[in-house]
């Protein structure tokens, strides 16, 4: 009889212990890492650099949409403003000043054109961002007159590139091989000629980012 009672008590203790374990586990699940880890999150971001005033609206809006639809987070940088205004009055909230950019946070960097982009032609911070992006092997995009930023940074030497026709002379002087194409790809540098090329330009950058 004593053995039966002991066995019965043992079973009750076992049931209580197992039940408690599962209740605790449910309330305190073991944390799991996201697929791809933290580095994957870092690599899913693109930086778009626009002029504080008179950037070309389509060259910002279309790529921004393409990148978002492709699963990339987009951050926007500019110079000394919290809101930038396009040539056709598109207003964009600025995430950070170009002086605060950490390139390690991004997989790709895109310079948007429009007449206001000339503010970066000789801007040491913008040129340094282009140089460092190139050195780090980032995907780099520039459209309209913005390829002159890359040319002035010295990263288009012996590279095929396109741009708005007004920039052909400057690109050639800086050693670029001007193509006059709508979009030109040379390794990880992708250049576009103007607003009409914005969709193709964005899609080529997206493809390069997904392969990278």
Describe the structure.
With 212 residues, the protein is an alpha/beta fold. It has two domains: 32 residues; 174 residues, 3-Layer(aba) Sandwich (Rossmann fold). A seven-stranded mixed β-sheet has the order 6-3-1-7-8-12-11, with helices on both faces. Strand 9, helix 6 and strand 10 form a beta-alpha-beta unit.
Strand content: 15-25%
Structural Rg:
26 Å
Helix content: 25-40%
Uncertain runs are 16-43
CATH superfamily label of the largest domain: Class I glutamine amidotransferase (GATase) domain
Please summarize the sheet with the most strands: 7 strands, mixed
- The strand line-up of the biggest sheet is 6-3-1-7-8-12-11
- Named at the architecture level, the CATH assignment of the largest domain is 3-Layer(aba) Sandwich
- Count of all domains: 2
Number of helices: 7
According to DSSP, the number of beta strands is 12
Short description:
This protein has seven helices and twelve strands.
List keywords for this structure.
7-stranded mixed sheet, 212 residues
SSE inventory with pairings:
Blueprint: H1 2-27, H2 37-43, E1 45-49, E2 53-55, H3 57-69, E3 73-78, E4 83-86, E5 91-93, E6 96-97, E7 108-111, H4 124-135, E8 139-143, H5 147-152, E9 160-161, H6 168-173, E10 177-178, E11 183-186, E12 189-192, H7 198-211
Parallel strand pairs: 1-3, 1-7, 2-4, 3-6, 7-8, 8-12, 9-10
Antiparallel strand pairs: 4-5, 11-12
Helix pairs in contact: 3-7
